[in-house]
Amino acid sequence: MTQPVSLVWFRQDLRVKDNPALQAANDFGTVVPIFIKDTSINAEEQPGDASNWWLHHSLTALNDRLNGHLQFFEGDPKQLIPELVEKFGANAVFWNRCYEPAAIERDTQIKQSLKETGCAVSSFNASLLWEPMSIRKQDGGVYKVFTPYYRKGCLQASSPRYPVPSPERISYSSVDNIGCSLSSLNLLPTLDWAADFTNHWQPGEKGAAKHLSDFIHNAASGYEDQRNIPSVKGTSRLSPHLHFGEISPNQVWYALIDAFEQPDNKHLDCYLSELGWREFSYYLLFHFPSLPTQNFNGQFDHFTWRNKEDEFTAWTKGQTGIPIVDAGMRELWQTGYMHNRVRMIVGSFLVKNLLVDWRKGERWFWDCLLDADRASNSASWQWVAGSGADAAPYFRIFNPVLQGEKFDKQGEYVKKYCPELARMPDKYIHKPWDAPANILAHAGVVLGKNYPKPIADLKASRQRALDAYAETKGK
Ligand code: FAD
C-alpha cells in the first residue's frame, strides 16, 4: 500500500528537534520538506541583509540535517503551495505557526484554499511558550504591562509544553526534486561586510545547541549579575537561533530548569523572564499589529522629531563621538549583533538626544541585526522611545557616559570597537572631550581628527528632549 504524502513547509522553525509539524508529518506518512522564499510580503517586512545571510547558512545546515531532501522555491506561497500539493500528489500540508500579521493573513488564506480542495492541513505552535491568543486578563482584556502578563497571565496559566523528541527516522517521499538551488535564492549579500560573521556565529541547529550548552556551563549561574556587562559573554547569544527557530524556547526553557538544581534561583528566574520579554513582544505584535510602524501611545503622534540626516548617518557609522554609542554601532556592523544594554544606550541616544524618529533606528537594526525580529525589534524600539506598552518613561534619558562608567568600567568594550581610544585612561574613556590636552596627546587622540568630537552636548540635548516631550504632552 502506498503511504500518504505530506508537505512540511519550513519557515521560522529551521530545525529537526522539537519540531511538531515535522513530527506530525512523519507520523502521517512520507514527507516532502520545502522552503519558500516568500516574494509576496511587502518590502519593509522582507528580511534585511544580515537576516538573509543567516537564513542562507541556516538553510544549508537544515538541508544537511534532512540529507539533502529540502526543496527550495521562490514566489507567492498562496499560489505555490496548492500547485505543489497537486504536483507531488500530497494528501496533507503541515507547518508551524508564524505570528507576524502578514504571515497570519497569508497562512489563513492558504489554509482555507487547501481545505476547499480537500487537502488536509495542520499547523502547530513551535516558537512560543504561550501563544498570544491564549493569554487574557481576567476581564477578557489584553495585558499591556509585562509583569502581570508574565507572572499572572503566563506562569499561572500553564507550564510551557515539553519539547517533542526528534523523529527516529524521517520517511522521505520519493518525489523528484523540482525546486531551485539554494544559491539561486540570492540570499547572500553582495557586500563583503558579512564575511567576518562566520567567526562569530554558526547558523543552524548545531550552532544553537552549542551556544545553549556554552551558556549553561559558563555563564548561566551568574546571569543576573553579568548580563549587563557588554565586554563579557554573560548572555546566551541565542537570539538569532531563536528567531530562525533553530532551537525552540521550550528547549531552552527546560534545559535551563534542568541545569539549575534549585528552581528558586535568581539567575534562572531572571533568564526565564527574558524569554518572557520575547513572548510579550509577540503578544503585543499579535494584539496590536501596527506596532512596527505606529506609536503604541498615540500621544507620540504629535512629537516633533528633528531627524537630521547627517546625525543619523554618524550614528549608523559609529562616529558620534560618544564612545559607548560608537562601540555599540560598530559591534553591530562588525558582528551582526549588539549587546542588549548597549542597544538601549544607542537607542536612547538616537531617539532622545538626537530626536530621530525611533522608526529610523528600527529600520537600521532591521537591516543589520542577525536576530532582527519584527516583534522584539519594534516592541524594544517603542520601549526605548517611551511610546510603547510598558515603556521606559520618556523622561528617563540614559546618560551614555554614566552608563559606560557603570557597565564598562575599564572601557574594555569601548577599546575593542574603538581602537583609536585604546590608550585613553579609564577616567576619560567614556568622555574624551573632558580630558586635558596632555592626556589626549599621550593617548594619541586628536578629537575631530582620529576620533570625532561629540555630535551632541549631552546636557543640552537632554533638556531639548524633555522640552519637546513637554510640548507634545500639552498638544
Ligand atoms: P539573553 O540575555 O541571553 O536572553 C535570552 C533570550 O531572551 C534572547 O535570546 C531573546 O530571545 C530574549 N530576550 C532577551 N531580552 C529581550 C528583550 N528585551 N526583548 C525581547 N526578547 C528578549 N531581540 C531580538 O531577538 N531581535 C531584535 O530585533 C531585537 N531588537 C532590539 C532592539 C532594541 C532597541 C533593544 C533595546 C533590544 C532588542 N532586542 C531584540 C532584545 C535584546 O536586545 C536581544 O534579544 C538580546 O540582546 C539577545 O541577546 P542574547 O540572546 O544573548 O540574550
Which class of secondary structure composition applies to the elements? alpha/beta
- How many E strands? 5
Which percent bin holds the helix content? 40-55%
Mean pLDDT comes to 96
Globular, elongated, flat, extended or rod-shaped: what is the shape?
A: globular
Q: What is the overall number of helices? A: 20
**Order of SSEs, N→C?**
EHEHEHEHEHHHHHHHHHHHHHHHH
The largest sheet, given as strand count, sense and whether it forms a barrel, is:
5 strands, parallel
Question: What spatial order of strands do you see in the largest sheet?
Answer: 3-2-1-4-5
Fold topology:
Elements: E1 5-10, H1 20-28, E2 30-38, H2 49-65, E3 71-75, H3 77-88, E4 92-96, H4 101-116, E5 120-124, H5 146-155, H6 205-218, H7 223-226, H8 239-243, H9 249-259, H10 266-287, H11 309-317, H12 323-335, H13 340-353, H14 358-368, H15 374-385, H16 400-407, H17 412-417, H18 426-429, H19 437-443, H20 458-474
Parallel strand pairs: 1-2, 1-4, 2-3, 4-5
Helix pairs in contact: 3-4, 10-15, 12-13, 13-15, 14-15
The structure holds flavin-adenine dinucleotide (FAD).
Flavin-adenine dinucleotide is lined by residues 227, 235-239, 242-243, 274-275, 277-278, 281, 340, 343-344, 347, 365, 369, 371-373, 376-377, 380-381, 384.
Structural notes for this entry:
There is one protein chain. Helix 12 crosses helix 13 (340-353). With 475 residues, this protein is of the alpha/beta class. The longest helix is centred in the middle third of the chain and has 22 residues, at 266-287. A five-stranded parallel beta sheet has the order 3-2-1-4-5, sandwiched between helices. The chain is globular and about 85 Å long. It has 20 helices and five strands. The structure holds flavin-adenine dinucleotide. Flavin-adenine dinucleotide is lined by residues 227, 235-239, 242-243, 274-275, 277-278, 281, 340, 343-344, 347, 365, 369, 371-373, 376-377, 380-381, 384.
